[in-house]
Amino acid sequence: MALLAAAAAAARRFSRRLRLLSIPHHLSSSSTSGEPESPSDVVEPESPVRAPPDEQFAAWVSRLRPGFTAGDLAEAISSERDPDLALALFRWAALRPGFRHAPASYLAALDAASSGRRPTAAENLVYDVLAGACSPDLRLFNACLRFCCARRRLFPLAFDMFNKMRSLPVSAACRPDVETYTLLLTSVVRRVRRPPASIVYLHAVRSLSRQMKASGVVPDTFLLNLIIKAYARCLEIDDALKVFREMPLYGCEPNEFTYGYIVKAMFQKGRTDKGMVYFREAREKGFVPTGGVYMTAVSALALEWRFEESRNVLIDMLDCKRKPDMITYRTLMEEMCRAGRVEEAFKLLEELKERKRGPLDQRMYSELLGGLHWISQPHQDRLPPCDKRSDD
């Protein structure tokens, strides 16, 4: 056993000189564009690589019985807290005659590298998996996708991995599943902000949604909410409603986030009447919208001079322990002053100050009071016009 440990230490020193995991794979990837990567693309700082002592490494090697399998190696790597020692074991095993890494050992090494802040080693492991260094495995592919989707510069590599999964035969049992589409859509939707810049990512969302349906993958509520969220952010209301109506077909029920995305997009699009329909439907089901949905509803109703509905939504927001911001308060009260309802605006301000649930603090009250005094001066001698109604 001592002879085996000494030979392992010698092999380890030899493998360290080779620096197997420091060889750049960027030129062999099908996703690179040939342009040098900028330093700003690095998402996380890499911890300095520390070589573990030979005695500690030899002790670990001595625990592996002769003829150990990839499962034994994966268990040893997973139980080791030191990422450098875990990766050293992985490299040493690759040099053993007749040994071939299995998906379990690659998965354990990838977890050790990513959790131990060794992104370069983890990235090289992903390239090895993409090149076919081990047999296909769904858990390993999804772990590689999770690592790539969490880093902006590896986003194209995630789609290379996705295309590899799609190209595998059905018998390999490695076709994309719900977790695969959830990882990709989460990464894509994170980049969807406002049109027109987000149209490119919206095309990716549509493509992934079509491929998911064509492959027979049954989505869950979280995955469908991601698709609705992407459409809602781009104000594609009809597409969002189409996915919303398809949810019962997959056995999924809308939740507060589903209604929140649709209601917020409705108000931003100017479809206030339909937005209130879905808002009331959500409240009847007991769902509590987020603060952003509430504030969008209050402001949209106030801008259309639907003050009674806007006030009711604001009171409901305070009852649900959601705190409005200054812009929401000012939008409602200043629009009331512009409509000639100065006394009602001051009365609402005092009512909000005296509330037991969600009262105004003194600073916000003083700023709102000063703003109402200033904006109400030109409207004192005007007749109050009629309320405007939405044409939708």
Automatic annotation (TrEMBL):
Record organism: Leersia perrieri
UniProt name for this protein: Pentacotripeptide-repeat region of PRORP domain-containing protein
Keywords: Repeat, Transit peptide
Highest taxon of the lineage: Eukaryota
Region spans: Disordered: 26-51
InterPro entries, A to Z: PPR_rpt (IPR002885), TPR-like_helical_dom_sf (IPR011990)
Tagged with keyword Repeat: yes
Signal sequence residues: none
Stated family: Belongs to the PPR family. P subfamily.
Taxonomic lineage: Eukaryota, Viridiplantae, Streptophyta, Embryophyta, Tracheophyta
